[in-house]
């Protein structure tokens, strides 16, 4: 407080003294270029008024708003209560709709175009940069989210966990461990695996020994650790010989960031609905995706309640985004 006042006063005095104290007393001794004397060319007056204007503005501002030590300002404004007031207004207007979406069964959200449009909005803002606007994945780095091949599991609970907590995949680099020939063998074995694997393929022994711990004996993958199915033709990093060799020799470590802190329960529920839109509805009813407070809306939702929930109007849903 003292510092603010002292510096404002000093600034005021400084500006005044420059403009009004020089009356005639120019320094005789200092002359450049024949006629250029120090102080001969003062800064224009508008500049002085500008500085004076901002000084007065600062003083009025400091009187009205908090800014001087513990002085709370004549208007009694503070950012904390400002936030609280807008939060209250927001809750009063949209809170009920948001709660309804949070607690609605996924199938009810699927049936509501307005809710699904909000979900797409949440998706576009948070996920599209990586997974693409159509969620088809991109750049052999970000997985497709609309097919039914899920590296980390496709139940609502597993997808919710992917979104809330993020995922960190670890596939070590096998090049240094196995050597070039073995990497080539196991690559060609994987290419054969999607058709009809020969029993005595040279890559089979390597696969059984080094890879099945994570990718499962069949090569079908293990969702719990994000080890993908290697027997289908869907692949994140590519199925060409070059891409497979790169994956195996140098390893892969895809990271899906966690959104549990950035998005609230309603937004996560909407995303979950968006990503399960193509899932067989029968699979959704009994999986019991949970909201953060541990409720499970799956098993105990009867068909009647389902229908009733579909009719719920989400008129103000836009705000959810
Ligand atoms: C410690 C567990 C683990 C072991 C052992 C392991 N992998 Fe993996 N593998 C993973 C994980 C996890 C991923 C997913 C990496 C990612 O998403 O970034 C992966 C990804 C891959 C991919 C890329 C798949 C795609 O969708 O593009 C290939 C190919 C692969 N592994 C082959 C192998 C082979 C061959 C072996 C044996 C030499 C092996 N893995 C051993 C965990 C493992
Ligand atoms: C910074 C880029 C990035 C953003 C933003 C991002 N993701 Fe991801 N996501 C990834 C990557 C990379 C993976 C694959 C991780 C791996 O290799 O296993 C992934 C994986 C996933 C998976 C698991 C897929 C599977 O096959 O099991 C889901 C579900 C997912 N993301 C949903 C979302 C949603 C919903 C959002 C928006 C809230 C989002 N992601 C935002 C990069 C991103």
**What fold name stands as the CATH topology of the largest domain?**
Cytochrome Bc1 Complex, Chain D, domain 2
The helix content, as a percent range, equals 40-55%
Multimeric organization: single chain
Strand-residue fraction? under 5%
User: How can the largest sheet be summarized?
Assistant: 2 strands, antiparallel
Class of secondary structure makeup: mainly alpha
Strand neighbour order, sheet with most strands: 1-2
Ranges where pLDDT stays below 50 over 5 or more residues in a row are 286-321
Summarize the structure.
This protein is mainly alpha-helical and 321 residues long. Helices cover 51% and strands 2% of the residues.
Fold and architecture overview:
By secondary structure, the protein is mainly alpha-helical. The chain has three domains: 2-64, no CATH class; 94-166 and 257-321, Orthogonal Bundle (Cytochrome Bc1 Complex, Chain D, domain 2); 170-253, Cytochrome c-like domain (Cytochrome Bc1 Complex, Chain D, domain 2, Orthogonal Bundle), CATH 1.10.760. Helix content is 51%, strand content 2%. The protein is built from 14 helices and four strands. A two-stranded antiparallel sheet has the order 1-2. A two-stranded antiparallel sheet has the order 3-4. Helix 1 packs antiparallel against helix 2. The two termini are 42 Å apart. Residues 286-321 have low confidence and may be disordered. One heme C binds at residues 126-127, 129-131, 141-143, 145, 150-152, 159, 162-163, 167, 169, 226, 254-257, 259, 271.
């Amino acid at each position: 407080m003292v510092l603010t006042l002292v510096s404002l006063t000093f600034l005021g005095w400084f500006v005044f003294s420059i403009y009004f104290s020089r009356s005639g007393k120019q320094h005789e001794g200092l002359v450049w270029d024949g006629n250029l004397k120090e102080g001969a060319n003062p800064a224009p007056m508008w500049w002085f008024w500008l500085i004076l204007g901002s000084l007065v503005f600062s003083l009025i501002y400091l009187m009205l708003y908090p800014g001087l030590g513990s002085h709370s300002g004549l208007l009694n404004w503070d950012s904390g209560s400002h936030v609280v007031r807008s939060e209250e207004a927001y809750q009063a207007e949209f809170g009920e709709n948001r709660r309804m979406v949070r607690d609605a069964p996924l199938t009810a959200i699927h049936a509501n175009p307005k809710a699904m449009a909000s979900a797409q909005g949440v998706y576009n803002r948070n996920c599209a940069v990586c997974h693409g606007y159509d969620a088809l994945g991109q750049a052999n780095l970000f997985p497709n989210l609309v097919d039914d091949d899920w590296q980390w599991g496709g139940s609502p609970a597993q997808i919710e966990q992917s979104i809330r907590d993020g995922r960190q995949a670890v596939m070590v680099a096998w090049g240094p461990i196995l050597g070039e020939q073995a990497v080539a063998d196991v690559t060609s074995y994987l290419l054969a695996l999607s058709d009809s694997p020969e029993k005595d393929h040279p890559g089979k022994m390597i696969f059984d020994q080094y890879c099945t711990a994570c990718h499962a004996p069949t090569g079908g993958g293990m969702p719990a650790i994000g080890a993908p199915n290697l027997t289908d033709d869907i692949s994140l990093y590519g199925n060409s010989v070059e891409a497979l060799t790169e994956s195996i020799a140098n390893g892969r470590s895809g990271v899906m960031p966690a959104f549990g802190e950035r998005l609230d329960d309603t937004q996560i529920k909407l995303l979950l609905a968006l990503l399960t839109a193509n899932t067989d509805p029968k699979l959704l009813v009994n999986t019991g995706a949970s909201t953060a407070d541990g409720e499970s809306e799956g098993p105990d939702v009867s068909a009647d309640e389902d229908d009733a929930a579909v009719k719920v109007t989400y008129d103000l849903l836009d705000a959810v985004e």
